[in-house]
User: What shape does this take?
Amino acid sequence: MDQTNPRPRVVSLLASATEIVAALGFEERLVGRSHECDYPPAVRGLPVCTAPRLRTEGTSAEIDREVRGRLARALSIYEVDAGTLAALKPDVVITQTQCDVCAVSPADVEDALRGLAESRPRLVSLRAEVLDDIFEDIRKVAEALGEPAAGEALVARRRGRMDGLAERAATLGTQPRVATVEWVDPYMPAGNWVPDLIALASGENLLGVAGRHSPRLPFEALVEADPDVIVVFPCGFDIKRTLRELPALTKRADWRSLRAVREGRVFAADGNQYFNRSGPRVVESLEILAEILHPDLFHFGHEGKGWVRV
Assistant: This one.
């Protein structure tokens, strides 16, 4: 960062990055956001610089078909409002390179800024694939804001909470076998940092792999795994919408044969606000898992807001 500009103007085009800036204590430096940035609530009043190029109101299967169709034709999922971005005159623009579907990419931003001679912001690209990467991204954002000490302090606080929970969970003698659902139709178990969270909460992760994108699997893979617990949090969906999409799973012939279904251990969580966001609230995601997996030991108050029993 230019040392003559100690308070850079920041546009965040990634919901988790917006949360990072706010958690670092510099929310007032945000001057623009993506269409998905909604936390903390005050950021909703900022100018919006992006929009999806596809319908987001369809079913899981319809959204999946449209996304795959656009990617197959090398078409972007999002558009950047070049006029709004230029008018905001940001010093720092934060985006990501982790997923073509999650948010705008650096290429999208560079295309929007091409030809705008007056706008030469610093582009910061985040790429969280496992849990440790989330904390490195916090440090990266803090450094871009010229506040590395704030980044280290935030990481220490969040890691401390997670370590304390993991130490308590490790005292338990059982590890429930956990299957996640990050997309309903087609079935996709969660990868990336979610298996790390399950391990910290003293669960045994099934199907999804840490550090890898969520795979497309046949429903029969879930039946064969026969988990003790199923946690459903489709990417970008809140609890209400998740419950609306559940029949794509629950109407399948083998659904009721699953151990988790028979024993009443199927849960819906808010993937949009928690599990799908690689930001500071990954701590709350861990707490939600702990409450679900070990209800006799953990009570953080997330039930009804962050998760519900199906």
